[in-house]
Amino acid sequence: MAIDTVGDLVRAARNGRNQKDFADLLGVKQSSVSRYERGKASPPISVIEHCMRLVHTQGEAPTAEQLAERIRVELADPSLIEARSALSRLVDAFVAEH
After folding, report:
1. What are the residue ranges spanned by the domains of the chain?
2. CA–centroid distance for 54 within its chain
3. Which CATH architecture group holds 6-57?
């Protein structure tokens, strides 16, 4: 993803999080994140710096514990049984090859 605007930077730093959770992380309102992303408001320098740090560190791989926690949270919904089953098969195949 090319980062050409402040809105692009904020979206990249959000990295799939919902706007409310990301706003909480930044210490701003969800509506502010929405306005930043749409170019309707300019974030304070502290928000820009925080977003730049997040974008810069996103290339690092999560630990096994961080990944397991993310999977636990993201796939907890009972309606996602097929996704959990597919992920389980993927892990089984990975383990079998390594």
Report:
1. 6-57, 64-97
2. 10
3. Orthogonal Bundle (1.10)
